[in-house]
Amino acid sequence: MLSSLNIPVRPALRMAVMVLFGAVGCGSAGPTTYRVNGKVELVGGEVKHLAGHHIEAVLTGEPTVRASGEIQQDGSFTLETLHAGVILKGAREGNYQVRIILSD
């Protein structure tokens, strides 16, 4: 019932997100990332049942670049990227395939 989505992270969107949420690139600790907030909506069901599970976004063309975030009770999530053992807030620029990963 769940499907992958293509979600582009584009410069114009980045700028709007940076202005609204005060996001800052991660600087010299790794590649530049941009804050990504979202909300899962479940048609015909209650999204609170997905709380504690994760959203995973895989950068198209670079499957080793992934961002993820935990789904909250209201369906909201914030993505983070693991780079060289450091967790960076947000995701790198690009198009992503997104899926929900259910916890055990």
Question: How would you describe what is shown here?
Answer:
By secondary structure, the chain is mainly beta. The chain has a 6-stranded antiparallel β-sheet with strand order 1-8-3-4-6-7. Strands 2-5 form a two-stranded antiparallel ribbon. It is built from 1 helix and 8 strands, in the order βαβββββββ. The chain has one domain (about 5-100).
Helices and strands in order:
Elements: E1 5-9, H1 11-21, E2 37-39, E3 54-59, E4 66-70, E5 76-78, E6 80-83, E7 86-89, E8 94-101
Antiparallel strand pairs: 1-8, 2-5, 3-4, 3-8, 4-6, 6-7
Average the pLDDT over all residues and give the rounded result: 80
Uncertain spans, ≥5 residues at pLDDT below 50?
9-27
Strand order across the biggest sheet?
1-8-3-4-6-7
The SS-based structural class is mainly beta
Summed up, the helix count is 1
Major sheet summary line: 6 strands, antiparallel
The rounded Rg comes to: 14 Å
Helical fraction: 10-25%
Question: How does the overall form come out from the CA principal axes?
Answer: elongated
In whole angstroms, the N-to-C terminal distance is: 18 Å
Topology as H/E string?
EHEEEEEEE
Strand percent estimate: 35-45%
Number of E-type strands:
8
Summed up, the domain count is 1
